[in-house]
Design goal:
Blueprint: H1 2-14, E1 22-23, H2 29-40, H3 57-70, E2 80-82, H4 102-110, E3 115-120, H5 128-148, E4 157-161, E5 181-186
Parallel strand pairs: 1-2, 3-4
Antiparallel strand pairs: 2-5, 3-5
Length: 187
């Protein structure tokens, strides 16, 4: 079963850039940058929250509540997703997951005047409120990594959590690919 999943994932990854979602860890810096440029031409305009650095509890609630208004889902072919694994009930970015963000980091740094939205998603396990909070915490953790370890400007990154509301695989709401961090370049 594990070999079948690995084979299916590699076949899926090989076809991503030609019509399905773009999973960033499988792409070069140039391919990620090109995908971001295509997103920007779609006219997505969202004004980031300037106070997104370290929200207090009430700000965090506002960020979750506003997420549905701020998130403009792209069709699967235009999404740039990173399959980041987190430990159960944890929003800590594991060391073994950080290399998956290396090309994303380089691409973001190359697009200096672009604001990027980091959207955390979960599967449907757990309550809706729990998943909203967990997805936001995970998006914020990825944001902290991109700022602190990669040198991406804090002003160019906004983190929001969508919980389970925008599954990548809507036919299987508990699927692993629904637990992801999506990136959007804002026009």
């Amino acid at each position: 079963m594990v070999q079948f999943r690995a084979l299916a994932l590699s076949i899926f990854t090989a076809t991503l850039f030609s019509g399905a979602a773009v999973f960033a860890q499988a792409l070069s810096v140039e391919e990620i940058t090109e995908a971001f440029k295509k997103q920007k031409t779609r006219g997505l305009v969202i004004i980031p929250n300037a106070n997104d650095a370290a929200p207090a509890a009430d700000e965090e609630t506002a960020t979750i509540a506003a997420a549905s208004e701020e998130y403009n889902p792209l069709e699967a072919a235009s999404q740039i997703n990173v399959q980041i694994s987190f430990d159960f009930d944890s929003a800590t970015l594991r060391d073994d997951q950080k290399p998956k963000l290396a090309n994303m980091c380089a691409s973001m740094k190359a697009m200096e005047d672009t604001v990027f939205q980091i959207i955390g998603h979960t599967d449907s396990s757990g309550s809706s409120a729990y998943n909203e909070r967990l997805s936001l915490l995970r998006a914020q953790e990825v944001r902290r990594h991109l700022i602190g370890d990669c040198g991406v400007s804090a002003d160019s990154l906004q983190a929001i959590g969508m919980g389970e509301t925008a599954p990548f695989d809507s036919a299987n709401p508990r699927a692993d690919e629904n637990r992801r961090v999506e990136f959007q370049a804002l026009g």
